[in-house]
Design a protein that fits this description.
Blueprint: H1 6-26, H2 97-103, H3 122-146, H4 148-155, H5 188-193, H6 202-226, H7 235-257, H8 262-291, H9 294-300, H10 304-325, H11 332-362, H12 368-388, H13 406-431, H14 433-439, H15 442-478
Length: 479
């Protein structure tokens, strides 16, 4: 008996299926209402009754068209021993991209292909494919980064939009600033999250926030490099850094949260003025102990620190009173109540540094610290000009609402002034220890640092008293 191969079995099944389909197609269909045709007689030798229809052939799926893995042409037939196991059934011309990438090296020469890399060697094609995949990944990453601000904005809670000048009370309006105001009466979360919103105070907040972080990072680096101990010699330096971070923090809180209500406006600006007085006295301590020359010290050592403490308190009291006393549009007296006490405090606090800078430059200055003190004075004078004059928004009203008005420039130069001052004081701390030890004892240093916290208490008490008066007047107005 001959043994049928697998191929012959499959071909026989295919013929059986094809014959059954042709027979069903040639069989006439019964017309509606016509008598049923008699059943076909059974072939001789068939044991089944003639009334039973023939059993349907077994359902066998047609053999798939096998795509060989190593053939050069779709129509080529391998020998029986080279076929190996069955492969996936794919119609010719519809091979997947993954299959083409894995078998491009097996296409015989002369075979037509549409791949732009077909003319390259196999290794080069694989390298080009890897490079293109990496470039597509980078392109996707770039698109995701470009959408990052929008994703962050969508991730934050929905916040009210900024409003025009006419939609906020008169207290919150700034001269020549027409838009970008935050609405009043919102919850506290809105004003904290407005740190990431575009409004006319956001630059004021970020300039001093970044400056405070820069001061902390620079001082941390200095402490680690010098192995700074906590003793009488380093205590004025710690007090100065504390005062710098305090005034920057109070300033950013004032500009971030003052739009909550009228009482919040007064409260946080009073806190800002307290921070300014703290910074003034902290600077006076550092200049007195680390930066003063002997000639200046011999003349002013007795009354410098008490006068600096009084001027610091006077600066806070003058600014708080001007805020309490005058309403918008502000008269010139308000600016004088702010500028004159703050100017006196600055002149007194900077006097040891100014004397040293002048003497150094007259004798051919070679000290790095003296140059940093020079930058400090220069940046402070520039910032004072922009604090006093509404430039450039006065000449371009409505064009500097979000970025570019005078108070933002004032903040920027004041932050640079503080960083220059910190660098100069750190250099003086390193290079002038012998002068310090000859002048001062531990008791005088501890006493002056205790007086620093006394100034903090006096300034805070003054601001609190004026806040209570503001609160009473607002309550009377509302009733």
């Amino acid at each position: 008996m001959a043994v049928r191969t697998r191929r012959e079995v499959r071909r026989g099944r295919s013929r059986a299926l094809l014959g059954g389909a042709q027979g069903r197609a040639q069989r006439p269909r019964a017309q509606p209402g016509a008598p049923a045709a008699p059943p076909a007689p059974s072939p001789p030798g068939d044991p089944r009754p003639s009334r039973c229809p023939p059993p349907p052939p077994p359902a066998v799926s047609p053999p798939p068209l096998a795509v060989p893995a190593r053939w050069g042409h779709p129509g080529a037939e391998p020998d029986a021993g080279a076929r190996g196991p069955a492969v996936a059934a794919v119609a010719p011309g519809t091979r997947s991209r993954r299959w083409r990438r894995g078998h491009e090296d097996d296409v015989p020469q002369g075979t037509r292909t549409t791949s732009p890399r077909a003319g390259l060697p196999g290794a080069s094609r694989r390298e080009m494919t890897a490079i293109l995949e990496r470039l597509s990944t980078l392109s996707l990453s770039g698109q995701q980064l470009s959408r990052l601000p929008r994703l962050l904005e969508d991730g934050l809670p929905k916040m009210p939009c900024t409003v025009q000048e006419a939609e906020v009370p008169q207290l919150f309006r700034e001269p020549y600033i027409h838009a970008g105001y935050r609405p009043t009466g919102q919850d506290w979360r809105y004003y904290f999250l407005s740190l990431f919103q575009k409004h006319n105070e956001v630059v004021n907040v970020w300039t001093h926030l970044l400056a405070a972080l820069a001061v902390l990072l620079r001082f941390k680096t200095f402490v680690e490099a010098e192995q700074l101990p906590v003793d009488a010699w380093s205590l004025p330096l710690f007090v100065f850094v504390l005062s710098s971070v305090t005034y920057l923090t109070c300033s950013l809180l004032a500009h971030l949260l003052q739009s909550k209500s009228e009482l919040s406006h007064y409260t946080f600006y009073f806190v800002d003025y307290v921070g300014v007085s703290i910074y003034q006295y902290g600077s006076a301590l550092a200049h007195f102990y680390y930066s003063s020359d002997q000639a200046w010290y011999d003349k002013f050592w007795l009354f410098f620190l008490p006068a600096a403490a009084f001027c610091g308190w006077l600066s806070c009291a003058g600014c708080c009173y001007a805020k309490y006393r005058y309403r918008r549009p502000y008269p010139i007296m308000r600016k004088m109540c702010q500028v004159i006490p703050a100017g006196l405090a600055f002149v007194l606090d900077i006097s040891p540094v100014a004397h040293r800078v002048v003497v150094c430059h007259l004798g051919g200055c070679e000290e790095d610290a003296a140059w940093y003190h020079t930058y400090q004075i220069l940046f402070f004078l520039i910032s004072a000009y922009f604090f006093s004059c509404p430039v450039p928004e006065k000449y371009f009203p409505g064009s500097c609402d979000i970025v570019g008005h005078a108070h933002q420039i004032f903040h920027t130069f004041l932050a640079i002034c503080t960083l220059s001052q910190l660098e100069a004081i750190c250099l003086d701390y390193k290079n002038r220890q012998e002068i310090f030890l000859k002048r001062h004892g531990p008791f005088s240093i501890y006493l002056s640092c205790v007086s620093f916290f006394g100034l903090v208490a006096c300034s805070a008490l003054t601001a609190y008293v004026l806040r209570c008066r503001i609160k009473a007047s607002l309550a009377k107005k509302d009733s």
